[in-house]
Design brief:
The chain has helices spanning about 20-30, 90-100, 115-120, 120-125, 140-150, 180-190, 245-260, 285-295, 300-310, and strands at about 1-5, 35, 45, 50-60, 65, 70-75, 80-85, 110, 135-140, 155-160, 170, 195, 205-210, 215-225, 240, 265-270, 275-280. About 40% of the residues are buried. By secondary structure, the chain is an alpha+beta fold. It is built from 9 helices and 17 strands. Helix 1 (about 20-30) links the parallel strand 1 (about 1-5) and strand 2 (about 35). It has 3 domains: about 1-120, 3-Layer(aba) Sandwich (Rossmann fold), CATH 3.40.50; about 135-200, Dna Ligase, domain 1; about 200-300, ATP-grasp fold, B domain (D-amino Acid Aminotransferase, Chain A, domain 1), CATH 3.30.470.
């Protein structure tokens, strides 16, 4: 099978915990031809989509990626699978890449479906399942934010299109820095931001559940460090073994059919105290930690299911 991966520059990756790297290793083990490219190399010329790509080889222990040739021009519709794996920010560059990839969807399997990646931003899409969420407000209307804070007392404020725990703040109705936090967000960009009722049990962890084609395949808990409210591994959260509870399964069952129908083949959901806070469909992480802690090889399951889609 011939695959190409749209991803961040190799030098930006922390390979030891990188899910894209795990997928590359497994694809290589299966004998796939693997090319990679960065989104800024995409070119649509008279309706023909190409990019500058490099063939790579992945190595384990120590983890590294070797580029086997100089960048060369390739046609994306000549691949069996295009795998979208670059991290947010979910900005106009990201959105444009999804539009460009849509031009080859009738010839090539793109994971995840770029139309629904674009139309299901992780902190907005999740609001479709409000019955499983903490109280949530999306706005940049300051008076509405103050009303929300006054009602729920303890809140989390974060960028609507952020990732990795960056610019996530806790505040409460006694916080003298509340005005400064809001001022900071108002100055970041012109977008709304997201405010949620604080969930005290975050200290017991933020569970990441991985779903492939709408089915649960594995999970880890992410524990915040002492004195920290963020459990993202990008900011020092510690992975821990976990189990799927009845409440977790109920949430996953509620979203499963939409993930299948929308072509959101590879997704990661975040659950704190039986409440879902996010559905990650851009570049879910955690599969190397799942393998280390539970022995479940999500990368193998990923490619098994992807092969079935190609063969069907």
């Amino acid at each position: 099978m011939k695959i190409i991966v749209q991803m961040d520059p190799i030098e930006r990756l922390n390979l030891a915990g990188d899910s894209t790297f795990a997928l590359l290793l497994e694809a290589q083990e299966r004998g796939y031809d693997i090319d990679i490219y960065t989104p800024d190399m995409l070119t649509l010329n008279d309706g023909i989509l190409s990019t500058k790509a490099q063939q790579i080889k992945a190595y384990h222990s120590p983890d590294r990626i070797e580029e086997l040739n100089h960048p060369r021009s390739v046609l994306l519709d000549e691949y069996d699978i295009v795998l979208m794996r670059q991290d947010p920010p979910f900005d106009m560059s990201y959105i444009t890449a999804t539009h460009l990839l849509e031009t080859i969807q009738d010839k090539t399997l793109i994971l995840n479906n770029p139309f629904y990646v674009r139309n299901c931003p992780e902190k907005i899409f999740v609001n479709k399942y409000m019955e499983f969420m903490p109280h949530t407000l999306i706005t940049r209307n300051i008076s509405e934010i103050i009303k929300f804070r006054d009602e729920y007392k303890k809140i989390i404020i974060k960028p609507l299109y952020g990732n990795g725990g960056a610019n996530v703040f806790y505040s409460d109705d006694t916080d003298r820095n509340f005005g400064s936090i809001i001022e900071n967000f108002m100055g970041l960009n012109n977008e709304p931001f997201i405010i949620q009722q604080f969930i005290p049990k975050v200290k017991e962890g933020d569970k990441r559940i991985i779903l492939i084609d709408g089915e649960i395949v594995g999970a880890i808990n992410r524990l915040p460090q002492d004195g920290e409210i963020r459990s993202n591994m990008h900011v020092g959260g510690l992975p821990a073994k976990t189990e799927i509870t009845e409440g977790d399964a109920k949430i996953c069952n509620a979203i499963s059919q939409d993930l299948k129908d929308f072509g959101l083949f590879f997704a990661g959901i975040d659950i704190i105290d039986n409440l879902i806070t996010e559905i990650n469909v851009t570049s879910p992480t955690g599969i190397r930690e799942i393998l280390q802690l539970s022995g479940i090889d999500v990368a193998k399951i990923f490619w098994d299911q992807a092969e079935k889609k190609i063969n069907n």
